[in-house]
Amino acid sequence: MTNTIVESVYGKLQGEQINGVFTWKGIPYAKPPVGSLRFRAPERPESWEGIRDVCSFGPVAPQSQREIMEFFGNDISNMSEDCLYLNVWSKGADDKKRPVMVWIHGGAFVSGSGSSSWYDGASFAAQGDVVVVTINYRLGIFGFLHLGEIGGEEYATSGNCGIQDQVAALQWVQENIAAFGGDPNNVTIFGESAGAMSIGVLLGFPSAQGLFHKAILQSGAAANVHSSEKATKIAGHLLATLQVEPTNLSKLEELSVEQLIQAADLVPPMSLGPVIDGVSLPRHPEEAIADGSAKDITILIGTNKDEYNIFSVFDPEWKNADETKVTQLFEKTFGPLVPLISSYHEGNQPLSQELYNKLLTMSVFTYPAQRLTELQVKQGAPVWMYRFDWETPVFGGALKSTHALEIPFVFNTLDTPNTENFTGSSPEREFVASQMHQAWINFARNGNPNSEGLPEWPQYNLNDRSTLIFNIESVVENDPNRKERMIWEQATMMMKS
């Protein structure tokens, strides 16, 4: 068993070997963020004597139970505020200097963990000889409560604790991953949804500079940050709900995890997330990227064709909605843009749920991804863009190529429990998974996703907007979302004027 024992900077770790892949789970990368460390930047973990057993996952970050996340394979049965742990998969703890991939999970900044069965790194390690790291980070009120304007210097970066946790995990990788057979000079960060949105922030986050070399953003970009003003307003609401005086913030350390989560569940979705706090994140990441903060980072970025379907298909508001109700839903979401949208809609057809989903997919996911891509391309950085078009047959096919569907294809974890509930069981899935899995491996290895079995995949440029469409028969299309993109570019100009 000695080859499962690794000497980290902080002490010895005993993992296990399963089917030729070594795993070390539940490794602490920071001190438990409890007591006086609640709402503070993470601190380096304590060292230990002897050999620490790391054969099971650490606790997940505090979060509410959410049906959609359970559907995505999220297990919160072991949950604790002491949650800053990571997991490693590798073919061997040797000096081979393998490419390293660090996964940042999604979940709207309030849910998820690095230990979901969907994120098992064994296939990447076995098939790609890549070292995979998955991490937990603080979520919701624990990770993104901006108290800087209310509590002063002591809380200056509290609104970005979750992002600072991710930076601490990347620092741990730099210091330790060589002992697990990984190359600290070839680190790719990859993530989906809030994980990809986190990566968009990390591309413009000063303390993350130099900690990674490539980035893969799945269904997320650099657009999802709050202004200090907005984040302070949310914090004010939460303090009032918790009956904590702004002059007595230390009382927050005495409240139970349950009290904090219950209060946070009352604010609208996506209210808690990264903040332009002027200290840890001095300005909007898109501005930093436009000025070259990530010009040395090679990027693979993409979205799913029907991202928004999962959010609207089960929305009771759409059930049996007549034309009047549909118009109301459009007006509620798009306001003054409805006439513009209608003018682009072919042959004056009535507004529909399908169009609603398409436009929200564009505005929330595809358009921000294209914006980030164009900022990077202008810096001369190589960027590859994809779109995932394979449609799931579950729920009568209503979900199509929805949000998060690509994850088990990327990780090649289609045979994990519960995955068939989301993807169905057709054998054709394996073919799509092998294409995506290999493309991600090649990108991590050498910064280029091209691989056998895929058509020649050109880098993205502003003339062609070449995009690889992943499906049973993958093809390259130029500017595949042109119609929605034109609507959204015009809409953005209208909103600015």
From TrEMBL:
Enzyme class name: hydrolase
SUPFAM superfamilies in alphabetical order: alpha/beta-Hydrolases
Protein's UniProt name: Carboxylic ester hydrolase
Pfam families according to UniProt: COesterase
Similarity comment: Belongs to the type-B carboxylesterase/lipase family.
Sorted UniProt keywords: Hydrolase
Record keyword Amino-acid biosynthesis present: no
InterPro entries noted in UniProt: AB_hydrolase_fold, CarbesteraseB, Carboxylesterase_B_AS, Cholinesterase, Type-B_Carboxylest/Lipase
Keyword Hydrolase found: yes
